[in-house]
Amino acid sequence: MSSVTINNQVPTATNPNATVDxxxxxNDLGKQPFWMSFNFYSYAPSFQSNPGSFIGGSASNNVALQxxxxxxxxxxxxxxxxxxxxxxxxxxSLLEAAGxxxxxxxxxxxxxxxxxxxxxxxxxIGSVISNFxxxxxxxxGMAVNPLLTVMFQSPNFKKHQFRWKLLPSNESESATIAMMxxxxxxxxxxxxxxxxxxxxxxxxxxxxxQNGNFPYxxxxxxxxxxxxxYAASGQPSFFGSTQAPTEVEISMDLLEILLWTNQDxxxx
Length: 268
Description:
- The chain has a three-stranded antiparallel beta sheet, covered by helices on one side. It has a three-stranded antiparallel beta sheet with strand order 7-12-11, covered by helices on one side. It has a two-stranded parallel ribbon with strand order 1-3.
- The chain has three helices and twelve strands, in the order E-E-E-E-E-H-H-E-E-H-E-E-E-E-E.
- It is elongated, with a radius of gyration of 28 Å.
- By secondary structure, the chain is of the alpha+beta class.
- The longest helix has 22 residues, at 118-139.
- Helix 1 runs antiparallel to helix 2 (118-139).
């Protein structure tokens, strides 16, 4: 399976003495056995010309991400962790394909002899033949076998949907949540460069302590959708001293920007 090497990786073992981490919720997240990290990187235009590389990486399955610019966010594992892989196939009619080829050949021949009007003539002839043939078969209680086949098109980019219900216990954790929300929004949105928009930052997700041993792995992705509910239980509630919400629900949709292949799972 492919692995991702990331600079400034979070500690790979639980720290029993962890106290306050300004990039983590709760503040003592390091005491928990597992957490999810979001590391943000700038978009590399060179990726467009070399799909096998990504921000300083190579064409191999081991990708090294460089140039971290958007910070790191660490949260507990989300409420849902569904690993969904989809592949696109198309249903095609071999009869239709053959008919299109024949129709194109007939149309080209007619147009060659009849000039610009030949295309319309060919279309009219094809319509008459099609309607007549279909009506005749229907009258006899039959239909043309379309000779359907399934044609592989491509794998789809993986999508992820995460949700957290965060309950801050003090003013510091409320400030941490507010900072995290701003960080997510800042990295998912484009910047402005004159009349142009700059590309949003890319996020690499890891599950710690060691993502390589965890079955749910991630390739570089972008944040497509971010929703923050400040009344997760149906009724707004705020701390009296700071007026910060006592609970916040964050839901996020992400889209990976690199495709998975069988080589990522030991294929050749």
